[in-house]
Structures are given as structure tokens and as C-alpha cells.
Design brief:
The structure holds 2 protein chains of 2 kinds. By secondary structure, chain A is mostly beta strands. Chain A has no helices and 9 strands. In chain B, strands 2, 4, 5, 6, 9, 10 and 11 form a 7-stranded mixed β-sheet that branches. A 4-stranded antiparallel β-sheet of chain B has the order 1-3-8-7, with no helix packed on it. Classes of the chains: A mainly beta, B mainly beta.
């Protein structure tokens, strides 16, 4: 799986958009970008994933650059409860969509949302 | 539906002992993965089971082992515990092999004295 690079920490004001960048310059064609977050003392929580098109769900939006070498997770209106460690993960799949379930976590970005 | 459950939530053992941790996946999920989380090494993949078969294994010594039962419940075992095994052990389940997200349990906090 490709390696990812994230800033170690970021701050965001409550109510504002939080934009978390991730660099994955060695990503290959069959690798997806996944985002998880971990709130203190809890298990990681899935947020969103994508291949090359931008994706949006009820939690966040994922913007992937055209060359797929970087992406940005956007929390449109951050709240205090969004304070967590955010992990950007690149995950490969074999032909037919088979994955071997392994997520390779980096150090992530500590996002602190303040009032 | 109920989430991933892990038992026990907290455990204290001494060096040299062995420990067994249990994970019950979300109903209908057949894939179970285990991770170790420590302050120094972060989250590291241990192994993954699918339909009672280990499909993938991380870079951990043979003291770490696991199994999965026909009802998809999984156990992991650590023998001859070392101080460095103190960690949060997380279990995650997913519905099918493929692009599905993994759902994590709350973890078991193991302390080795």
C-alpha cells in the first residue's frame, strides 16, 4: 500500500470548514483513498473513501486531485465533537475488488476544533 | 444493529502469562481484523480472518495468534507476555471482501506488569 503524508496537527474554529490535506504521491491505479478518525479512547471510525472522483456523504467531502497524488478531507461545519486524530489511508485491491482487509495507519493529523 | 463488541475491555497481566481476547463482529460480517495500538508505534495491523481462514498477517512475532469461529467471532491470543505488549487491541469487522469500510470495536486495554 502507498505511503501517505499528513500534517501532524491542525486547528479549526467551530462552525468553520476543516480542510485536512493528505499526500499520497506514490499511489497506484488500483488504490483507493480512505479516511478514518479516532476520537480519544475510542476505536477508529470510517469517514469516507474514493478512487478518483470527488465524494460526499453526510459526514464529509473528499476531494482527490486529478493526478491522484493528493487529497483533502473537508468537514464543512466543524464542531467540538470533530476533535480527533484523522488518518488518511491508501488501500489496494486485487482484480475483482478483493482486499485483504489490512489498513496501514500513519501518524495522522490531530485536528483540534476550538470554540 | 449492534456494533463490534470486544471482551474484556480492560485486562492486567504479568510478564510470562498468556492472554486471550475476544471479538464479536457485527451480525452478518465475515471479515475480522485485529490491530495493536501503542503510543510509540501507533496503529499496527496484526492479522485478518475471513470465513475462518487467516488471509493476511502483519509483522508480529509468533507469540501473537488468532482464530475465527464458524459464527465469525474471533479470538486473539498472546503467549509469554512482555512489557511491550501493553497496548490497546482493536478489532474491526467488515461485511464482505471488497471496498467496504471496517467497523471498529472499542478495544481491549491490556496492561502487562
Amino acid at each position: 500500500d502507498a505511503k501517505t503524508t499528513q500534517p501532524p496537527s491542525m486547528d479549526c474554529a467551530e462552525g468553520r470548514a476543516a480542510n485536512l490535506p493528505c499526500n499520497h504521491s506514490t499511489i497506484s491505479g488500483n488504490e483507493y483513498v480512505y479516511w478514518y478518525r479516532q476520537i480519544h479512547s475510542q476505536g477508529p471510525q470510517y469517514i469516507i473513501h474514493g478512487l478518483k472522483n470527488n465524494e460526499t456523504n453526510e459526514m464529509a467531502s473528499l476531494i482527490i486531485t486529478e493526478d491522484r497524488k493528493s487529497s483533502t478531507l473537508i468537514l464543512p461545519h466543524a464542531t467540538l465533537r470533530d476533535t480527533a486524530v484523522y488518518y488518511c489511508i491508501v488501500r489496494g485491491f486485487l482484480a475483482g475488488g478483493t482486499s485483504y482487509g489490512k489498513l496501514t495507519f500513519g501518524q495522522g493529523t490531530i485536528l483540534t476544533v476550538h470554540p | 444493529k449492534a456494533g463490534v463488541t470486544q471482551t474484556p475491555r480492560y485486562l492486567i497481566k504479568t510478564r510470562g502469562q498468556q492472554v486471550t481476547l475476544s471479538c464479536s463482529p457485527i451480525s452478518g460480517h465475515r471479515s475480522v481484523s485485529w490491530y495493536q495500538q501503542t503510543p510509540g508505534q501507533g496503529l499496527q495491523f496484526l492479522f485478518e480472518y475471513f470465513s475462518e481462514t487467516q488471509r493476511n498477517k502483519g509483522n508480529f512475532p509468533g507469540r501473537f495468534s488468532g482464530r475465527q469461529f464458524s459464527n465469525s467471532r474471533s479470538e486473539m491470543n498472546v503467549s509469554t507476555l512482555e512489557l511491550g505488549d501493553s497496548a490497546l487491541y482493536l478489532c474491526a469487522s467488515s461485511s464482505l471482501e471488497g471496498y467496504n469500510e471496517q467497523f471498529f470495536g472499542p478495544g481491549t486495554r491490556l496492561t502487562v506488569l
